[in-house]
Specification:
Layout (H helix, E strand, L loop, with lengths): L1 E5 L4 H10 L7 E6 L19 E5 L5 H10 L4 E4 L6 H6 L2 H22 L13 E7 L23 H20 L3 E6 L1 E3 L8 H10 L4 E4 L5 E6 H14 L5 E4 L4 E3 H15 L11 E4 L14 H7 L7 H14 L1 H7 L5
Parallel strand pairs: 1-2, 1-4, 2-3, 4-5, 5-6, 6-10, 7-9, 8-12
Antiparallel strand pairs: 9-11
Helix pairs in contact: 1-7, 2-4, 4-5, 6-8, 8-10
Length: 344
């Protein structure tokens, strides 16, 4: 396996690389990342000198450069995680989301199609190649108080971010149907864990609490998300890449729904326990702020297909995972300061 991981310097990508780089199937692991504000080589310090590891600073929007990477390294497998992913940023500046998430995915598909299939569509997908596109449950839109997203749920994206990911999903599906590209798609729930850039809910709460600053909570705080520990997600992605059925979609979730306010309160209580020198009563910092436009009310994933077909289920409970995450941020404030440097 000559594996290309796009977005490997980001949150999920770096955790994935840590998780799989020692797998004996992998001959070389190429990390393609253009190092935006959310991509940091600091995330990969433990593997930077690994004999299998190669870093390529390339922007997916640069089609010739993407083609060159796929050709030069004779890539056989792709795990495509590179994306602009922050909903708030997609509302204020959607351009990057369309160009990176849609055009970038197209460029990568074209590079792999040329390398793997040549000029003609394949009657059946070739066995020696695999292209895994990593997407989000946000493409399905918002759930009511009941029910779960399945792989058959209709797409109904409500933000520029989720619309761009939905478009990328459709391109990947079309390349399988039209050209016989050996593609797979995963749609995952909200990830949390080490190395997450401090703009998403959980690291924002942790950092605000440690700094004794107001902890912002959108609206009434009752928006519900299914939370997935990033290292459990990494294992699921590996199973889909190596054992999933070509052309299929797999939803990845932990059956772990929590209202945002309850997540915030739990983090506050853990910080009071792990950092008593801060004075306790961290919940007093919780501050409700105006809701963001198009804020989906609830997400919930039915992950029975990946459990049934590939035997995957999360290894961490939410209490265990969130405690490990809080502890990691407390112990890695040097990393936080490094990635927040304004020079990036």
């Amino acid at each position: 396996m000559r594996l290309l991981v796009t977005g490997g310097a980001g949150f999920i990508g770096s955790n994935l690389i840590h998780h799989i780089i020692d797998r004996p199937e992998i001959e070389v692991l190429v990390n393609l990342d253009c190092l935006t504000y959310a991509g940091h080589l600091e995330n990969l310090e433990p593997v930077k000198d690994h004999p299998k590891y190669v870093f390529e600073k390339v922007d997916l929007r640069n089609k010739p450069a993407v083609i060159e990477v796929v050709h030069k390294h004779r890539i056989t497998h792709v795990m495509h995680l590179a994306a602009e992913s922050h909903v708030d940023r997609s509302i204020t500046g959607p351009d990057d989301f369309i160009h990176t998430n849609v055009i970038g995915t197209f460029n990568l598909l074209e590079a792999c199609r040329a390398a793997w299939l040549g000029a003609k569509p394949a009657a059946t997908p070739p066995d020696q190649y695999r292209f895994l596109h990593v997407s989000t449950d946000e493409v399905y839109g918002s759930l009511g108080p009941e029910g779960l997203f399945t792989e058959e749920s209709p797409y109904a994206p409500n933000s520029p971010y989720s619309a761009s990911k939905a478009a990328a999903d459709m391109l990947v599906r079309a390349y399988y149907r039209t050209y016989g590209m050996p593609t797979l798609i995963t749609n995952c729930s909200n990830n949390y864990g080490p190395y997450q850039y401090p703009e998403k809910l959980i690291p924002v709460v942790i950092q605000s609490a440690l700094a004794r600053k107001p902890i912002p909570v959108y609206g009434d705080g009752l928006h519900v998300r299914d939370w997935l520990y990033v290292r459990d997600h990494a294992e699921a992605l590996w199973l889909v890449l190596t054992r999933g059925r070509i052309g299929e979609t797999y939803n990845i979730g932990a059956n772990n729904e929590w209202p945002n306010i309850k997540v915030v309160e739990l983090i506050c209580d853990i910080i009071d326990e792990l950092a008593p020198h801060l004075g306790g009563n961290t919940r007093k910092l919780i501050t409700f702020v105006p809701d963001r436009p198009g804020h989906d009310r609830r997400y919930g994933i039915d992950a029975s297909k990946i459990k049934r077909e590939l035997g995957w289920q999360p290894a961490h409970s939410f209490h265990q995972g969130i405690r490990e995450t809080v502890r990691w941020y407390i112990e890695h404030q040097d990393w936080v300061q490094a990635v927040l440097k304004p020079t990036r």
